Amino acid sequence: MKKKSTVGTHGEKGTGLGLNLVYRFIKMYNGTINVSSEKRIGTRFDLSIPITISLAKEKGAISESLSA
Question: Where are the domains of the chain?
Fold first, then answer.
């Protein structure tokens, strides 16, 4: 079976394989993908991955938070 390429909004070619890999990666790290689409405009993918920082517990160590 021959793989079919699709044409994007700006004429770019693709098979969608990259999206499958991104989905697996995001799922593996408990993230989310939000998709919005408009005809003749295109599709937007918003990706979120939770970030956790672990600091070694030493005398007086203070945990820090990271915001992105």
Answer: 6-48
